[in-house]
Amino acid sequence: AALRAVPARRPDRTSPIAMSAKPREIDVIGGSVVLIGHGLLTQIPALLREPKLAIKASKFVVVSDKTVFALYGQQLLDAFEAAGVSAISYVIEPGESSKDRLVKERIEDFMLEQRCQRDTCMVALGGGVVGDLTGFVAATFMRGVPVVQIPTSMMAMLDSSVGGKTAINVPAGKNLIGAFHQPRRVFADIDLLKSLGQREISEGLAEAIKMGCIRSAPLFDLLETRVDEVRALEHDVISQVVYESVRLKAEVVALDEKEAGLRSTLNFGHTIGHAIEGLASPQMLHGECVSIGCVLEATLARDLGHLAPSAVGRILRVMKAYALPVECPPKYLVLPKLMKKMAVDKKNAAGVIRCTILTGIGSCFEHPQPVDKAVFEQLLSPQLLVRPMSVKADATVHVPGSKSISNRVLLMAAMGEGEITISGLLQSDDTQVMISALSAMGAGPFHWDESGRFLTLRGLGGRFQVPKEPMYLGNAGTAARFLTTCATLILSPGSSSVLTGDKRMKVRPIKDLTDALSACGCSIKHLESPTSLPIEVAASGLAGGRIELSGKVSSQFVSSVLISAPYAQKPVELILPEPPVSQTYIDMTIKLMAVFGVKVEQEGTTVYRVPRKSYTNPKAHQVECDASSATYPLAIAAITGGTVTAEAVGANSIQGDAKFALLLKDMGCTIEQDADRTRVSGPSGGRRLKAVDVDMEPMTDAFMTAVALAAVAEGTTRITGIDNQRVKECNRIEVMVSELTKLGVPAGELPDGIWITGVDPETATLRPAVISCHNDHRIAMSFAVLGARIPQITIGQKSCVEKTYPEFWADMSRHLGMRYDAPPEMVSDAASVDADVQMPLPADERSVVLIGMRGAGKTHLGKAAAAHLGWDFIDLDHLYEARHGPIMQTVAAEGWSAFRERELAILKETLSTKSARTVIACGGGIVETAEARAVLRAHWPVVQARKPIADIEAYLGADASRPSLGEPPAVAYA
């Protein structure tokens, strides 16, 4: 009932965001003024004497930390002196450890020693730590003296310097002792941001994203659509971001200065974020922890039924776009410690944890809402213990859109001509990977409507661009296979696209597809394994004509060629030597191509002819609900003896898995299926399901759901025709056998399938088990079904359902009555840990880029450092020569620019594939181009190796293998 509060006023989506070229002033409350502009630092003492901004003070005390003071402290003190104003300084150690009682006392004692009186004004020059600490000193010194904030970090400029919240940390938690003390003036000099590294910029921008989430859809849209400009601190765009973030916060502070209600909503992402920060600091920054908190708290709002799944997807994508983490690193995911930290959050009341609940992008409930502790435990726990259901399921469900259809439609729409609005699109990890990759190839922008139900984009007409960075596709097989052929369509001589993925994707097969494309003239290099990603695809176009391809391993190879074939240079005749696996998915592709205006001529299942023709985007397209996802609630009906209706999945579906209901009928269920609806009732009267002998080749993705039911069916079930499932997210046949065996259910492998002898849960002696999901969504969901009947099943990696059915746990609970518990202690399960979760690496594990001019010793130093650390070592010059031949040969034939372009491509690829525990040696000339400098700025740490010029000249004089610099080393290095 507490969650029925009235949503906060939603700002007008159409209101323009504009930033004047001149500095802007924002009035906050009680005379507090924020001034935003460029080049303000040295003007501050003079500005403080102007009538509107003047502060009457006989002495100014500047507090800063060692790092910031070295950059700006003397400039500010000199400016005070030039203005004839008395100013002294106190410098602290940088970092959160300085924000405590002891340092506060030291500052106060210093001020007393300097005979500071009530007419003293304090000046905080620094980031959030300096600002919070200085503000708290000002709030208590002589019962309160004025304070001026000069934020130097993105985080402080956007958030902590505005609004008057001051505090120090104590052992019990962060910011628990403090006061409200409004700064008289805040000078936001945007030029000060230029000294920040990319990581510090991004962590500060987490606060701007947070503000867009809760109060401003236009601000969120700006951050979402202009990522590169924001990260590069482009003058006008970053000014807009800072101004809007400050204006919105000032608006809230004016309405609720003392955080009695509305202002507490500004803590979106902080309920969980602060708890993570309490365990992860200083390895993780505040904004990085808030980013994780925002994603998790948005997920909570979705699971409570208040936020559209598409909104969660947008928040997750925008955080990733700014290189912010979206998942808590496992070593900090200690549930009892996190819950203890959350229990002392300042928003809590009467011992109940309260949290800001989003209702849309740009809106939330007026006040933080109470959320039960058990809900947070289930949200945060990486594992779930499934409780057997004590009642029969009785529900109607509407599962998310089909992953297979969604990714096909996204790719065709991006290729096509004209604007299209897509509804019913699946919002999941796999579709987010596809959207991100298409964006990198020049597609978009992708516009979601306010409800999050409709996606609009305008097609490129097949004119894709070479992505600037390697495309990381995770373990998304559909995206990896489809985009391989798509990348061949790009025409940009000398350029190439790199496709890579996680560890599992790097062993999943793609060779049949790359061999077929290479045979028709495409240039594709396998960069690691000769059979899998990563690959480099030359932007040389797809010739077309006759293409021979095997479809026995995956039908996705066939669909990949078919989808891109209309844009080949000649009509395509695709020849398969034998019938492919999963023909229903190829049929789906052909039917969707027809929707987009391209008709495929087909001879049986082995010959396909595709004309040269652009796709014509329909004005609108409705994605079917996912028939594979619908198998799980229907199976719950079967296993509990209840009745479940799956809407929008019926006999007219183009998905093969829509026929799963017929298998349930053979197992003893009653089914009713019309054009767009399927109803299943399980056996009644205590009767068990019946074993079956079935070829599931037309619906291979549903075989695991059938296995879960077979585990409690009477007799031995044999499932065949599923050999391709050995090369999916994991070897699914092997994993199903191993996990059933853990429980005590007899099972074994067949040459192209699996057998299972069912047990009676009422009489069988079964064992508790933690299911190793191997990062496979279908393993998790299938064993959740079995957990509705068999006790003590713990899903080892609950989050892997995000791949295709993000709302799975919430839907099964809310609609079907399933219940789960967070295990009291997490059971170690290595197979359920995804080693490739994208999150910020600890500072001591991030790869080091060691740059140095020729002869500076970077290779020698790099090898020594790598040996000392036990890390890998890569010399980019050596890697270059292994791929392209001697550097001198490239320079002589094509010039330095060609070398630099290829060198940059190798650097990007290496940073993507070797982001941890590697020393990467790179020539100092890499910094000559703006793009390379931006890449290096985005990575941390970068170390420069230096050596006296005389020593370098002596070394180079003895090495004739390197190309001439064209000028003496002393000149080149200058």
* Total domain modules: 5
Strand content: 15-25%
**CATH superfamily annotation of the largest domain:** Enolpyruvate transferase domain
What is the CATH class designation of the largest domain? Alpha Beta
Bin the helical content: 25-40%
Kindly report the CATH topology of the largest domain. UDP-n-acetylglucosamine1-carboxyvinyl-transferase, Chain
- Under the CATH scheme, which architecture of the largest domain would be assigned? Alpha-beta prism
Major β-sheet annotation: 7 strands, mixed
Mean pLDDT: 90
Number of strands: 41
| Low-confidence blocks of residues | 1-20, 830-840
Q: Termini, distance in Å?
A: 70 Å
Strand order of the largest sheet: 1-2-9-6-5-3-4
Structural class: alpha/beta
Task: List the total number of helices.
Answer: 33
Shape descriptor:
globular
Rg: 30 Å
Main traits of this protein?
single chain; 974 residues; Rossmann fold; Dehydroquinate synthase-like, alpha domain; UDP-n-acetylglucosamine1-carboxyvinyl-transferase, Chain; 41 strands; 37% helix; disordered N terminus
Q: Nutshell version of this structure?
A:
The chain has 974 residues and is α/β, with parallel strands linked by helices.
Task: Provide the fold topology.
Layout: E1 24-27, E2 33-37, H1 44-47, E3 59-65, H2 66-82, E4 87-92, H3 101-113, E5 120-126, H4 128-140, E6 147-151, H5 154-160, E7 165-170, E8 173-180, E9 185-189, H6 198-215, H7 217-225, H8 227-231, H9 235-255, H10 270-280, H11 286-303, H12 309-321, H13 335-343, E10 354-355, E11 358-360, E12 363-364, E13 369-370, H14 373-380, E14 384-387, E15 394-397, H15 403-415, E16 419-423, H16 429-440, E17 447-448, E18 454-458, E19 471-472, H17 477-488, E20 491-500, H18 511-519, E21 524-526, E22 535-540, E23 545-548, H19 555-564, E24 572-575, H20 583-595, E25 601-603, E26 607-610, E27 620-622, H21 627-640, E28 643-647, H22 660-666, E29 670-674, E30 677-681, E31 693-695, H23 703-710, E32 716-720, H24 732-743, E33 747-750, E34 753-757, E35 769-771, H25 777-787, E36 793-795, H26 808-814, E37 819-821, E38 848-852, H27 858-869, E39 872-875, H28 876-884, H29 887-894, H30 896-913, E40 918-923, H31 930-938, E41 942-944, H32 949-957, H33 969-973
Parallel strand pairs: 2-9, 3-4, 3-5, 5-6, 6-9, 15-28, 16-27, 19-20, 23-24, 31-32, 35-36, 38-40, 38-41, 39-40
Antiparallel strand pairs: 1-2, 7-8, 10-13, 11-12, 14-36, 14-37, 16-18, 17-18, 20-22, 21-22, 24-26, 25-26, 28-30, 29-30, 32-34, 33-34
